[in-house]
Every structure is written in C-alpha cells, then in structure tokens.
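Below is how a single chain appears once it has passed through the pipeline. First comes the sequence as given, then the structure the pipeline wrote out for it. We keep one example in the README because the format questions we get most often are answered faster by looking than by reading.
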Amino acid sequence: MLLLAALLLAQVPAAAEPTPAPAPTPLRLSVPAFGSKAEAEVRDLPQAAADAALRQALGRIVTLDRLTDPARSDSALAQLNAAAGKGPQKIDPDLFGLLERALEFCTWSDGIDGPLGGRLNELWGVRGAAAALPTATTLSAAVDSARCSHLTLDQRAGTADLQAGSLADLWGFAEGYAVDQALAVLRQAGSTNAWVRAGPVQRGYGPGPAGKGWWVMLPKVPGATASLEPFELRDRAVACLQASDRQLGAGGQTWAPYVQQQTGRPAEGVLMVVAVTDLAIDAQALGVTMFTAGARQGQLRLGSVRPSPSVLWLLGTGQGAPLTTDYRWSDLRRH
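Resulting structure:
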C-alpha cells in the first residue's frame, strides 16, 4: 500500500510557480509652466496611480507658477509687492517658504542674488525687452532696492514686510522650489523612483531607468567642439543655466538672463553654469549666484556650503573654445 501511494503521488503534477506580476510601465506627463515646460516621470507605480500622482505633482507646479508670477495681479507675489511700505503682510505659506530660502541665499552671497531683484529685472528686460538702457540714477536706485535688509520675515506670524520702493521677484528660485514640491507629491504617493523637471532645473529620486540614477545630458555651448560628458543623478538635483536662455534685452542689446544684484549689471563672460546639490531650489539659486559671481569669486564662496555642491563653469564669448573650470565636479562619480 505504501508503494502504491508513492506511485500515485509521483503522478500528480507539481504545483506551478506563481507568475510574477509585470513591472509597472513608466509614465511621463508634461504641462506648460514658467514660460516653458514642466515634466515628471514615475517608474514604479501602477498606471492609474502613476497618472493620478503625476497630475497632482504637475498641478502643484502650475499653482506655484501662478503664485510667484509678478505680472499676475492676483498672484501672492504681486499682492505682496502692491503692499510694499504698508507694514507686515500675512502671506501664502508657500510664498513665505520660498522667500525665506531666497533671503538666506541673499545673506550668504552678500547680495549677489536674492529675492528683491524686481527693479533690476525690469530695467534689464528679464520678462520682455526694455526700450532703453538704464540710466546711472535708475540703476543706482534699483541696486539699493535689492538689498537683503529691505525684506523682513516673521516665521511665527507668517508675515512679510517689504520696504517701499523694493520689488520682490523670485526669478532664479521659483522653478527649483516647484520641482522640490512636485517630487514631494510623488514620494507621498508611494513612488521611490521618480523625476521632475521645470525649465533648467531637474531632480531625480531613486534608481532611474537603469538602476544607477537619472541620466543628465548637458548641451553643447557655442565654440565647443563637443557636448560635455553626461552623468547620472540619484537623489540629487541639477540646474543647467545657459547664457542663451531667455536673454535679457534693453536698448536693443542682449545679455545672459541673470543680473548681479550687487552691481546691477548683467552677467558677462559666462556661457554656462551647471550646479548639482541635494535640493532643486538650492541647485538653481547656487547656479544663478555662480553665474553672476563668476568662477573665481564663486569658488571662494562654495567652501562654506553644506552639503558640498558640484559646480561647473564654461567661460568665454562663444567665439572660440570655452574655458572650463569647476568645484568638486569629480564628486559626481560617487553619487
């Protein structure tokens, strides 16, 4: 009987191993934002969940674009500017957080870059060409209006006090902040492998498409014979700022789109700056500061930044091979 039972058991087919669930299909969506395009990708959520998370994340970017647009009379930033000189104003928490971080950069850079460059940006045609070049008088007044001390924030009360004559402008900060906020939405939705970009700023989280991070392809600048070597971004952010991005225009002349707020003059002699650090807002703000400060002064300032960023400058006029200089650029191999 025991032998018969063994033979019968031998004829029973073994239970089939369960078929593994298919890997989620990567999903990428985009929307117009900040005068350009914002896009995001999720690689590890089911299709319906990924679609919902991406739409929420991109909606967050669009909301922040509207919140920080000084040209929209209904934006929180425009309302703060309209109340300049009228004492502390209760402001939107997102605007407060963004102004707070921008003001920290203003203090750290000794006023090279900060949140009060609105008058200077108007003079140099950041959002539309100015008819004439600034005069010495208007330029001096605009430089004074950009001083860090002209904005006081009260974290407990959630208020901002902007002095009369100053104009807040988050050019060079808002896109990075929006990228960080959008990625936070995707992480809260359960994604551990996601990427977000707005304008010149992007941030990758998790292993990316091939398990080592998200590839960053850098553009070729005028005068260069080839593009720079790409690198992988994992749990970090990068801002790639070029002199050709939405150039300034005044009096029929053009410049790179960033103004050095200490001097009130547009940046010159820099073709591109690439800044890599943990947060997208820091990458963008560092990139702008390094663009307007230049490589020599920029390198001196970077020693105090923690966590240590990686920065690359391409210097020149575009008529010949650019000069390349960097700060801890080789550290990227470790990430």
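The radius of gyration is 25 Å.

See the next section for the split statistics.
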